[in-house]
Write a structure and sequence with these properties.
single chain, about 280 residues, binds adenosine monophosphate, binds manganese (II) ion
């Protein structure tokens, strides 16, 4: 079994439509996958249909932007029913907050003499519900305001940069509670990527995540280092978390592993997909 439980389509900030993404995963040999777009499950229906056509096992997913300890923390929800109205309502509310942030960022760009950022980013987002910093970065690049995609984050968008605007994301506790109430399972995404000022902070985050009902962590992620994978495999075992593995692939803009190319789980951890009967 080749597993990838974390990837993005163009329903959030990935490059490929759900169909093409699942086809890519299939070409790469993935046999069990989840689509985990940021704060939306709009692509899940299409992805599931294509996965079925191609004989890939599929678990519904989403990556919920959350906050804890003054940081943006990502919580993956697996197994949610994307057709439930009380599920879509949660994401509609986050979409409004994203839109509000987009307008505030636009005001900031205008002060710097950069006009049309909001309209431009929205057009790249396909006028859909998830307006991401990725769309602003791509627009800045297309318009020649930055020399490459990464430069957009470094110059304008990363926390602390001039046009970084905070969003009132749900807390980690709220996201986990939402996932559990709707019958899903909460996975802490890429625990190695939060770059806390002290090392012990991430263990505090894991303890908090566990205390509020989180059940799994990404032990292997395309968006963290191989030494992180080793560290979090040990923590999953000692703290009693189920383990997940995902590429976190968005597009060829970054050199991250493509779907299915991230490391698979090491021996000794309990795979999260056992809870879904795989
Ligand atoms: P948002 O959820 O709208 O705040 O956008 C965050 C997205 O931007 C992430 O999911 C990444 O895909 C991308 N991103 C965030 N920080 C960086 C960074 N420093 N460099 C490149 N991409 C980033
Ligand atoms: Mn992203
Ligand atoms: Mn993430
Ligand atoms: Mn992701």
């Amino acid at each position: 079994m080749l597993v990838d439980l974390h990837m993005h389509s163009n329903r959030s900030d990935g490059a490929l439509p759900p169909r093409a993404l699942v086809e890519l995963a299939h070409r790469n040999g993935v046999t069990l996958m989840s689509l985990t777009d940021h704060d939306t499950m709009e692509g899940v229906g299409e992805a599931r249909t294509v996965a079925r056509e191609l004989g890939i096992e599929f678990i519904s997913g989403v990556e919920i932007s959350s906050r804890w300890g003054g940081r943006g923390i990502h919580v993956v929800g697996l197994g949610l029913d994307e057709t439930r109205e009380d599920v879509t309502a949660f994401f509609d509310s986050v979409a409004l907050r994203r839109d509000r942030r987009g307008r505030e960022m636009n005001a900031c760009f205008e002060k710097l003499g950069i006009r049309g950022a909001y309209e431009g980013a929205l057009a790249l987002a396909g006028n859909k519900s998830i307006l991401s910093r990725t769309h602003f970065a791509l627009w800045l690049l297309n318009e020649g305001w930055v020399k490459n995609y990464q430069d957009a984050f470094d110059k304008y968008l990363r926390p602390g940069a001039p046009c970084s605007v905070d969003v009132d994301w749900p807390t980690v506790e709220e996201s986990v509670r939402f996932i559990r109430e709707k019958g899903g399972l909460a996975v802490l995404a890429h625990p190695g990527r939060y770059h806390f000022s002290s090392d012990w902070m991430v263990e505090e985050l894991l303890k908090h995540f566990k205390a509020v009902g989180g059940e799994a962590i990404e032990v292997c992620s395309g968006s963290q280092s191989r030494s992180d994978d080793v560290r979090f495999a040990a923590l999953a075992q000692s703290m009693g978390f189920l383990a997940s593995s995902g590429s976190d692939w968005h597009s060829d803009r970054s050199s991250r592993p493509k779907p299915g190319e991230q490391p698979q789980l090491p021996e000794g951890v309990v795979p999260v997909w056992t809870r879904f009967g795989f």
